[in-house]
Amino acid sequence: MAAENPLVTQALLLKHRISATVTSYGRRDEGKIAILLDRLKAGYDIALVSDCGMPVIYDPGRLLITAARNAGFPVTVVPGASAMTAAAALSGYSGDRLIFLGRLPRTRPQLDQLCSTLKHESATAIMFVHPPVLPHLLNSIRRVLPNRAVTLAVNMTRRDERLCQGSATSLFEIARSLPQDADLTLVLAGARERSRTPQLRRINTR
Q1: Side by side, which strands form the sheet with 48-49?
Q2: What is the DSSP letter of 33?
Q3: Which of the two ends of the chain, N or C, has the fewest CB atoms closer than 10 A to its terminal CB?
Q4: What distance in Å separates the CA atoms of residue 48 and residue 195, rounded to the nearest whole number?
Q5: Domains of the chain
Q6: Where is 86: in which H helix or E strand?
């Protein structure tokens, strides 16, 4: 386990009679990422634990999440109060500032206008999207914000949970094939976030 405060985590484990090796991982421990990746390569599982709040939301844990995913390891999140925070955590984008956009417009001009307001927005934007609207939203993103990285979380916390990352263009064909009853959360990287996934990646989270 990688914990913000190993003593706090040890106390929690002791209370529930769980035996595990715990190491510190916080803002001053980012040098441990290589060591933790070596443990993953050796076949061990690693749980990332924070003292309070959601791990990797305004938290250095996102660097570990991104490094593990880039190394090809599956990453999942323990179900929390909302798919919003779960999808933000798994995206690997900055959690220093988040904005939630609910009740998205449905017409092309309105979606284009919405994307235009995000041209200079440095925050990570999170949206709950109805499947019929998703292709139109991705079209607007690729027209107005063509260089932005996008993460699409499908059916968060369910057994068929899926995560896809890439550009709006690369996600378009997936959007057209999704069932109409799917629960979709779209995470859009902020204006200052360097795109790490210009090409489509389907990620196993479980």
Answers
A1: 23-24, 2-3, 48-49
A2: H
A3: C
A4: 24
A5: 83-203 (3.30.950.10)
A6: helix 83-91
